Amino acid sequence: MDSLRSGAVRSLECELLQAANVSFAYKRHLVLREVSFDLAPGGVLGILGPNGSGKTTLLRLLGGLLRPTAGRIALDGCDLGNIAKATLAQRMAMVPQETHLAFDYSVLEIALMGRYPHLRSFEVEGPEDIELARAALAETDTAMLEQRAFMTLSGGEKQRVVIASALAQFGRRVADSGHRPVEVLLLDEPTASLDLGYQLDVASTLRRLNRDRSTSMVISTHDLNFAASVCDRVVLLRQGRVLAAGPIRDVLRPDTVRALYDVEATVEQHAMTGHMTVVPWARRATTAPNTHEER
Amino acid sequence: MRASRRLLASTDEEAVVAPGNRRWSLRRRLTVALSGFGGLAIITLTVAPLLGPTPIGLGRVFDTSIPFADNVDAQIFFIARLPRALAGALVGASLAVAGVVFQALLRNPLATPFTLGVSAGASLGAMLVITLGVPVAVSGIPAVPIASLLGSLGAAGVVYSMATLRHRGLSTTVLLLAGVTLNSFFSAIIMFVQYSADFTQTFQTVRWLMGNLDVSGFQPIVAALPLTGAAFAMFATLPRALNLLTLGSDSAAARGVDVLRTQRVAFLSASLATGAAVSLSGPIGFIGIVIPHLVRLIVGADHRVVMPASACLGAAFLVGCDVVARTIMAPFELPVGVITALTGGPFFLWLLVRRQ
Amino acid sequence: MTQRFAWFILVAWLSLVDVLHTQTPQRIVSVIPAVTEILFAIGAGPQVVGVGSHDQFPPEITDLPRIGGLIDPDVEAIIALRPDLVVPYATQGDLVTQLERAGIPLFAYTHGTLRDVLTTIRQLGKRTGHATEAAAVARGIEDDLAAIAGAVSGRRRPPTLLVIAREPYSLRNLVASGGSGFQHDMLALAGGHNVLNGATSRAVQVTTEILLQTAPEVVLEVRAEETLSASEIKKEIATWQFLPSLPAVRNSRVIFLTGSDLVIPGPRIAQAIARFALALHPDAPLPTQ
């Protein structure tokens, strides 16, 4: 709650993306209750919580795919509902947990799909769009896969290609006017279905994007160590409520981990990486069982 | 054409490369695909009316000195064959593109234009008119095509309202389940109607279900054209959004696609095209699944190329199959659906095996 | 020794079956309309205990039990009637097998040519103990046929298309009589020239191209339903205007006839042929019936 400043005025330094008292219900089932936090430009915010805590729903709300039942989500002070779909898609992109294609496209074609919000109806991607898509692939180290069929890639390669496709949404042509707007990447469990090596690949890609392009990110994950290696701030979510929020060093403590996952854990700084690491060592009796699956 | 030869010659190493994507240029791919498949369609359409069980002289066909009433060659050309070829092109193109759209909408490569009950509804409508002998003919259009069109649109309406009734947006899962259920439900009613009909009527209904392009004149085509035209106008707005829909609806929406609107237009246009085609020719199978996959194997998955290419190849394929159907056992003809299945099925399987 | 004994039993059994077979049947079940009509025409009506569901003629069958039809015969209902002779159609393989297993005597029947109708009448007469009446019926039909043939002899035989079925109010899925079978024979005897003479099958699917190419001068449409109203028939005839260049349409010689006698190869066949002849040759001196 410490990061919520109610009645905050719009400023360039903070509150790029702001959620204020957001609640959401599928039919009558309340999934999120009065969730509030904000994301500063260039920040990486982790949304941590067990399965079914409402992480994915929160991410879909932030991406404008769902409307909050109550509360408000704003991008640069502007209510998400008032931003045109294409405009929003040029500033904010989503990466789902896994991407299954119904039909096989090439890697370059997947990256070019990110150019959709920049094209008028019936407009065909021009050389500039192709260059921007290739640049996005280069940023995620997938340029050499350009000609490959997406379905033949490994899980980690797929995830980095999808991230590139999302980055292509931010690409601006020379003719586009105005300064480069701050961009937000929303990632839903980006490493959940990957093995350790690919997890490291994706984590380093995300860190580099944040460092080199100052891409802002919201990452939902249940993996505390992955979050600790990428995020600077976190929101702990349990059963749709915020347990704690703030800088990762302050928030990630044995008592918060216990409250979040019902496990006893040691939290310490890793000697080599300098990141916080969480080692769970015992299961604690469940106080409130998870009753529903995460959507 | 060159693309197809490369596909057939592809080695294991090349097989992982998506076809048609060496140097990415949509305009070039579209030009190549359209000149190849479009050329094939035009050649087929030109040659088809010249072939048939009766030998006709082209000179006599266009000889205006003979009165039309006495010029059997011209009559056969203009009343029997040309409308038939055009009907084949219209139905083939409609079913092929409807297949592409349904597959993208349901994100299911096994979907066909008939998956969602549209053709079962059309069949039921036709069955009822044939067996009950409803004496309706609206402004010269016979009752059977009208009833089958109403049946198909009715079925589409039921399936659509099922899929939207209790859902935020449109549930493609419910769409698929409702369609499949409606298909078997209608089939049961059709069986009951056939069972209670007398023998001649049962034969007529069975024959209708086999599909038939013998439209005897331009009038049925003209009647179907407004609906088909409307469907194709809607198709034109879809390709890029359908590309993004294959990533999943969330990913598409996050890239700025109006998912619900796209799904609505896709469902409506594909149902309309299928309904119009089935009312013109009866249900002709296999085109809606073989053609889209064949085209994807050759040109890749981009709907901006796949849709026009499928329309052309679907038209060429059905017109060609119809020529075979009416000449192979001349003067008698086989149901064209037999030829589409017998030629399309094995060829498709061969392509699948070759690619692996 | 045992082998010889077995032979003896077999021969004895076979002769017993033969004796049973040649006995005059008293409980006959007829599945096909044509057979029902023949049985009643030759005086075997009182022996008939069950008829097909679609049979309508003669009126005496109204109260008889119905046992299904060509595609859906009800074996249980047939056996329950304890028949000593069943006349199924040749294509009813399952029915034939089941009845044979039940030991019920059968009479094999199939639609054939016009001549076969007369043969069937005589055979059914012998089988049911009405040989004399059957011979008389057959001879009567033969006399009628000869009279019709005489009346139309020497006249020009117009190229004719005999339409059996098509889609309502449309010329699609049109089925016509080919160059064999009783309907072809009926047309020929009535003084018409079947334009589909060359086709060997009994029924032919006719395309627009074949219609135009064969250019019939007369289109003769027959329908079993007697329920069609005059206005419906008028509309069906008007449907042919889709092909205005067809000689039969140009000369207004599209003729629509209804009645079950036209499609059933039974004792009313001479009457049906007379109707054909009258339609084709309105001025021929046909015997009035």
Terminal Cα span of chain C: 68 Å
Mean pLDDT of chain C: 89
So, the CATH homologous superfamily of chain B? Answer: ABC transporter involved in vitamin B12 uptake, BtuC
Helix count of chain C? 11
How do you describe this structure in short?
The complex is a heterotrimer of chains A (295), B (356) and C (289). Chain B has 356 residues and is an all-alpha fold. Chain B has helices at residues 2-8, 26-47, 58-61, 72-106, 118-132, 143-165, 172-196, 199-209, 219-236, 239-245, 249-254, 259-281, 287-299, 303-327, 336-355; strands at 137-138, 141-142.
Description:
The complex is a heterotrimer of chains A (295), B (356) and C (289). Chain A has 295 residues and is α/β, with parallel strands linked by helices. Chain A has a domain at 17-97 and 182-283: P-loop containing nucleotide triphosphate hydrolases (Rossmann fold), CATH 3.40.50. In chain A, 29% of the residues lie in helices and 26% in strands. Chain A is built from 9 helices and 12 strands. In chain A, the strands form 3 sheets. A 6-stranded mixed β-sheet of chain A has the order 6-7-8-3-9-10, sandwiched between helices. In chain A, strands 2-1-4-5 form a 4-stranded antiparallel β-sheet, with helices on one face. A two-stranded antiparallel sheet of chain A has the order 11-12. In chain A, helix 3 (107-113) packs parallel to helix 5 (155-168) and helix 5 (155-168) runs parallel beside helix 6. The longest helix of chain A is centred in the last third of the chain and has 17 residues, at 196-212. The radius of gyration of chain A is 19 Å and the shape is globular. Chain A starts with 16 loop residues before the first strand and ends in a 12-residue tail after the last strand. Chain B has 356 residues and is mostly helical. Chain B contains 15 helices and 2 strands. Chain B has helices at 2-8, 26-47, 58-61, 72-106, 118-132, 143-165, 172-196, 199-209, 219-236, 239-245, 249-254, 259-281, 287-299, 303-327, 336-355, and strands at 137-138, 141-142. In chain B, a hairpin with a 2-residue loop joins strand 1 (137-138) and strand 2. In chain B, helix 5 packs parallel to helix 12 (259-281), helix 9 runs antiparallel to helix 12 (259-281) and helix 13 (287-299) runs parallel beside helix 15. Chain C is an alpha/beta fold. Chain C folds into 2 domains: 2-110, Rossmann fold; 156-280, Nitrogenase molybdenum iron protein domain (Rossmann fold, 3-Layer(aba) Sandwich). Chain C contains 11 helices and 9 strands. Chain C has helices at 2-22, 33-41, 75-80, 93-101, 114-128, 131-152, 182-189, 208-214, 230-238, 247-250, 269-280; strands at 28-30, 48-51, 85-87, 159-165, 174-177, 193-194, 203-206, 218-223, 254-258. In chain C, strands 4, 5, 6, 7, 8 and 9 form a 6-stranded mixed β-sheet that branches. A 3-stranded parallel β-sheet of chain C has the order 2-1-3, covered by helices on one side. In chain C, strand 1 (28-30), helix 2 and strand 2 (48-51) form a beta-alpha-beta unit. The longest helix of chain C has 22 residues, at 131-152. Chain C starts with a helix and ends in a 9-residue tail after the last helix. In chain C, 44% of the residues are buried. Classes of the chains: A alpha/beta (295), B mainly alpha (356), C alpha/beta (289). The interface between B and C is large, with 41 and 37 residues.
